[in-house]
Amino acid sequence: MKLIQFKIKTPLGEITRNGLLINNKILDLKNGYATYLVQETKETKPYEIANVRISDNMLSFLDGGDYSIQAAHEVEKYFQPIIKKEERIEGPCKEQLIFTQKEVKIIEPLSYPRYIVDFMTFETHYQQSLAKLTDYGLWKKYPIGYKKNPGTIIGPTDPIIFPSAITKWLDFEVEFGVVIGKKGKDIDETDAANYIAGFTAFNDISARDIEIPEVLLRLGPFKSKDFDTAGPMGPCIVTPDEIGDPHNLNMELRVNGQVMQQGNTKDMKWSVYQLIAYTSKDQTLLPGTLLLSGNPGRLTSKTIKRKERLRVGDVIEVEIEKIGLLKNEIIAKK
Is 107 in contact with 101 (CB distance < 8 Å)? Predict the structure, then answer.
């Protein structure tokens, strides 16, 4: 199941809805659930139930836990053959349920995550960035990470605004994202899979010339990762049943068509289950928490080089197997 958020224009203005991506079509999840209830259960108050089970934003949907996920699965199962056969269907109040991608705008699948932790799980990235500054033994012992600003999140096609007030060296990082779907604390590694809502793709846009002193002074990253539009995410949250093994997914980043990063989640030092277990030690994880893998390192050089910095007009593509594509252009700050 591929969960998305999308915006649609209405006579009252633009609104945000939760949806499902099915055969490249977009299904309105809440109105789709109301339709399912009427058609399959003869429910007389479908909208009231749909409002409880399926909200209009992903964070509230995740708060619904297993009830919301189960409702979404029921909607997917009901509408899959309808969409495949391209049959016409309307909601109980004659509302449009199915859209093409040209009719709506797919936005980030999770706006303002409750908590973001970005780890460094790939050894190549460690060797290219921190190996000369830190103890390799410590890196192998602990899954180190930093907290990222939830306000950085943008959608899969939104522009990245060049933060010219703080940097001249803008950089990129393809990352694998894990979205938490259930509240938990002191989660055992063997039980961690039950706390995952799904997986997503992420681009950790970074201001390297600020990041270096922040890291050297032992309190970063801060501004180097937290500026507006520094977190392209999406295009969807793919549920675990559709991903299968999360530790065998190809990931790639391209700048203007040139492959700059390439890797596979099998090379992560720590599994996603270990990351969940470690983060939840003596700490409560809430639905809507986003854990990131870090990036798999560079293809073009053994270190992160200034000459490969991003410029206004560059187009960055991030693609992860079974999840989808981010395509974001760098634009000048107005």
Answer: no
Every domain of the chain and the residues it spans: 2-106, 108-331
Cα-only R_g, the chain = 20
Q: Which fold has domain 108-331?
A: Fumarylacetoacetate hydrolase; domain 2 (3.90.850)
100 or 131: which leads in pLDDT: 100
2-106 topology per CATH: SH3 type barrels. (2.30.30)
pTM: 0.95
Residue 108 contacts residue 10 (beta carbons within 8 Å): no
Mean pLDDT of 203-220: 89
Contacts of residue 65, Cβ cutoff 8 Å, sequence gap at least 6: 181, 182, 287
Question: Alpha-carbon distance 224 to 163, whole Å?
Answer: 10
Going by C-alpha positions, the residue among 111, 108, 110, 130 that lies closest to residue 119 is 130
